[in-house]
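Quick one: structure for this chain?
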Amino acid sequence: MGSKKTRSEGAEPMSEEERTEPGPQSLAEGLLHEPIPEPERPRKWAYANWLIALISVFVAYHATVLLVHNLPNGGLSKELHNWFNKEHEVEILGTKWTPNLDMRTYMQATGNTQSWAMFAPNPHRSNSFMKVMVKDQDGDVWDMAHDIYGRRRYPYLFYDRMGKINRRIIEQKGYRRHYAAWVCREWERTHGGEPPIEIQFVKMWTRVPPPEKLIAEAGGNPFKMGYDPMELKLFQRDEGAIRCRTTRNAQLPNELRERYGLPLLEDESKVFRPVVHRTWWDKQETARRAKERKAQGVAGQPARPARDGGPSK
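Got it. Here's what it folds into:
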């Protein structure tokens, strides 16, 4: 049998480095005894410096034009409006620039044209309402009760969409035709398919008493100040009427009549007046064709005779 060699018999003696070198460690020993690595140093800013500067300039511009836009157009702020809306010359580090901040275009493009002038410096001096009435086929006139005059307690804490639209048709007459078309369809839908004759508008308003009058009547007592809005004198003015038969989209088509269980129209094309939708492409094409017709007409016209012996054109 061969003899088994031991380290003392055949192997070379261990060096000093081998004696001091640690042997293999388990994972648990490494996690427990090895030093904790230092965490990476976090970045000071989330974005690059150039991007931070660009965003800061935009925020400053937006906040500034938002403030200037809501200032009154006259008085001391008139110069600010002109400075932000027109070109002006400035000198920076010896270089002349003519920037145009174009505040008006920016506010319209971003949809920030809401004016807060309703609160200051001249708040509303009157309470306005628009009475909406329907004249049916029998000639009777019905108040649709779309306005809030006498229907809400003052002050009221809730404001629904109907109140907002009612105020809008007072201020902007262009909304009234579309609003009247909806009222015509609703009346037709809720009255067995019978359309009304027309929608009538009557503007109502009351004048808000000035503060000095209320203070004098209350004798300076703040707990007695105030007024009953229903005791104020009511003014009314006829704002015209819109016919349901001739207004576009003011009739129910057979598609909706079938949905609501109403009798269908025998000849829908003679009753229903659809809305003509014109996109930006349609307008552009119409302008292009008109320009071509104008150019062809000018080219096809004969030369006009000369006057007073001058050259013909």
